[in-house]
Please model this.
Amino acid sequence: MEYIPSTSGFCPHCGARIASYNPNRRYYGSPIKICKKCGEKYVDRCFHEIAAEGMPSSEFSYGRDKKMGLLGLTFFVLAYTLLYFEKHYQQYYHTSWYMIMILSGAIMLIAVIDAVQIKTGSKEKRFRKLMQESEERLENYEYANQLKELGYNVPEKYLCEKL
Ligand SMILES: [Zn+2]
Model:
């Protein structure tokens, strides 16, 4: 069986578009995928098998939330200021400032929700469940060995067939 790393968003066998692909996001689940069109297997490195790769510490730090929050705040204040000046000192104003304020507000909201989920432990609970599902997949020793062959650091206990 041949595994071809897919980072392009297309099936390496038949070229079909992989619908869920978004290179800016982290997905959790098996990186070994089966193409819906041709039925062949390929590897999607966007997906992370956390029982082999470990819990993603970046998901539990506030660093990304702070960056997103500050970015949202900066654009919000900027758009608000420009809108204010146009309204008071010009005959017209750009309605697109409203759009930017809504978008940057949404970014701030996403950052706040994520931070709250870290703080309250609900995010950790979600990842415990993901970890459990990941461990269940690795219980299949054939699958565990396939991942090992692909270069994943699979814990030794998953690599032997249980008798
Ligand atoms: Zn395919």
Summary: The chain has a mean pLDDT of 90. The two ends are 25 Å apart (CA to CA). The longest helix spans residues 63-89.
